[in-house]
Design a protein that fits this description.
- With 459 residues, this protein is of the alpha/beta class.
- It folds into three domains: 269 residues, Aldolase class I (TIM Barrel, Alpha-Beta Barrel); 102 residues, no CATH class; 68 residues, Lrp/AsnC effector binding domain/regulation of amino acid metabolism (RAM) domain (Alpha-Beta Plaits).
- The protein contains 19 helices and 14 strands.
- The strands form three sheets. Strands 1-2-3-4-5-6-7-8 form an eight-stranded parallel barrel, surrounded by eight helices.
- A hairpin with a 6-residue loop joins strand 12 and strand 13.
- Helix 1 runs parallel beside helix 2 and helix 8 packs parallel to helix 9.
Length: 459
């Protein structure tokens, strides 16, 4: 069974540097979700300090997770890692001709190999149980450069002999497609005695799919990050790798499948990195728009959404009121059954209004159309069916009020996506979904400290 190594706090911080308290909280969330290994960068003063690294390690010591530090295949990096009480160390260097020529000052292949071997031997002498050698730019061997895949396989096993417990095979430029990734790892697994790690970059959008393919043909370790964040446009995404391996392929990973959505939503709030619309855990992935799809999803949602996602990720589906709104959905929003012809007329009127507005309609607009037809609207049912509207709640507060003490509580509310202190016409902006009386909850939380409150609805 492959191990999951999460590198959000190493590779991911090439995308965005996090504050120390955020890093510690993210580490705790990852440990709770059940990743096998969490990777951190060693300290590189003055950019990072030992205190930055120790803050995360201190949090992780109470969890059943291996901590892996990451550094260059140089003595000083191995010695820096040895200052910490952790299980693992990964060292990297690129032995391909392109990298040796333009990044490593013309270093020979033999010298690159020697540096990796010496770093591994030194790591073993310091007692690291997990020792990973990363052959940066390794996919170039598969594409026929630098002596081909047989040369790469010999290098992998030589590094294994030097002390590597696993060797990472990155597709550093993100050049491979899923069929190529599968063949690449299938051949390497057959040729090598040493365990292999899969580390795919996302330059063509294949990183997660490539990692799944590598897992299915025998990769021993899979490198991922939350939302796939990393250098350029990132690497494989934790959810996009773990969820299909569990749901579709039946792998018994340590990952707490039911905790992934909570991890992603909390991570997004902590870091300010939004979940993109095309991600499997986005609100858009939870929303049905086409009328015929809506009609089906009301009866059997698994017709459009995988059962694994319905079980673990989405407790309900939302529907969007556009020109394609289903008449079956309208019936669900009414207190009484009405004739099909009436539903069809209501659907047509709502579609025309949506066309005029050039977008989706909110529950208030739909209710008004239905009431004008003398239909009895179940407003609560209508609100629950439709995708919640996005709102910006702007607060002006008594300057003596301890705003920051209340921010963690607000961020814990499922309806709240973001909370920002600002300067200018407001003191605090809360980005939230209009459900479960969110505005009233905000009023109760701040009480008499509210000098002014405004709610803006996003179109």
């Amino acid at each position: 069974m492959p191990k999951i190594l999460d590198t959000t706090l190493r590779e991911g911080e090439l995308y965005k540097r996090f504050k120390r308290e955020v890093r510690a909280k993210v580490a705790e969330l990852l440990a709770c979700v059940g990743v096998d290994r969490i990777e951190l960068t060693i300290d590189y003063p003055p950019r990072t300090t030992r205190e930055d690294v120790e803050a995360v390690i201190d949090i992780l010591r109470s969890y059943d997770v291996e901590i892996v530090l990451h550094g260059r295949a140089y003595r000083q990096d191995v010695e820096a890692a040895a200052k910490y009480d952790v299980e693992g160390l990964g060292v990297y260097l690129a032995p391909t001709e392109l990298h040796r020529r333009f990044k490593l000052g013309g270093m020979s292949f033999e010298e690159a190999k020697r540096r990796l071997e010496e770093a591994l031997e030194l790591a073993a002498s310091y007692g690291f149980k997990y020792r990973r050698a990363t052959i940066e730019d390794a996919s170039r061997y598969y594409l026929g450069e630098d002596g081909g895949i047989e040369t790469l396989a010999r290098l992998v096993d030589d590094l294994g002999e030097a002390g590597a417990t696993v060797v990472s095979i990155p597709d550093t430029c993100g050049m491979l497609t899923p069929p190529q990734a599968r063949e690449f790892f299938e051949r390497l697994v057959a040729l090598c005695k040493t365990p292999l790690s899969a580390h795919f970059h996302n330059d063509y959008g294949y990183a997660s799919a490539n990692t799944v393919e590598a897992a299915l043909v025998g990769a021993d370790e899979l490198h991922v990050s939350v939302l796939g964040i990393g250098d350029r446009n990132g690497i494989a995404d934790l959810y996009e790798v773990a969820a299909p391996l569990i749901d579709i392929h039946g792998l018994n990973l340590r990952i707490r499948r039911d905790r992934l959505r909570e991890l992603y939503e909390t991570f997004s709030k902590l870091t300010g990195i939004r979940i993109p619309f095309r991600h499997p855990l986005s609100r858009e992935a939870q929303t049905i728009r086409a009328g015929v799809h809506q009609s089906m999803a009301l009866k059997a949602p698994e017709g459009y959404v995988p059962t694994g996602k319905l079980k673990h990720d989405f407790d309900k589906l939302y529907f969007e009121a556009t020109t394609y709104l289903s008449k079956k959905l309208i019936q669900k929003a009414l207190k009484n059954d009405v004739d099909d012809a009436v539903l069809q007329e209501a659907s047509s009127m709502i579609a025309r209004l949506a066309e005029q507005k050039g977008g989706e309609l909110g529950p208030r607009e739909i209710a008004e159309v239905l009431r004008n037809m003398n239909l009895e609207v179940d407003e609560l049912a209508l609100q629950k069916l439709l995708k919640p509207q996005k709102a910006y709640i702007l607060l002006n507060l008594d300057p003596r009020f301890p705003v920051r003490e209340k921010m963690p509580e607000m961020l814990s509310w499922s309806e709240v996506d973001q909370v920002d202190e600002v300067y200018g016409d407001a003191d605090l902006i809360i980005v939230a979904r209009l459900e479960d009386d969110i505005v009233e909850r905000v009023k109760r939380l701040f009480g008499d400290a509210i000098l002014r409150i405004r709610t803006l609805i996003a179109d």
